[in-house]
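Could you help me review a protein record that somebody else here produced? My question to you is simply how this chain folds and whether the tokens agree. Thanks in advance; the entry in question is below:
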Amino acid sequence: MVYSWDSIPQTAHKTGLFLHKFWNEFPENGCDEEIDSISLHLLQNRIKFTVCKFVELNWSLIHLIIQTTAMYLVWLIQLKS
């Protein structure tokens, strides 16, 4: 699940690069404005998934969960002894 959250922005960026290359190679294809605006939008605005704009859903979330769990376990062990 995290892999898909992380791979979608990368794929969108690659798509923007592909569209920009296509637009440069075939400038007279009839959809110049649409291809240009879509490619610029994908290249300039990074797609990201967030939880209420608080935490970004990517691999850093998994690291945060592991760190929080480890810290909580250390506190529990220290309080027990």
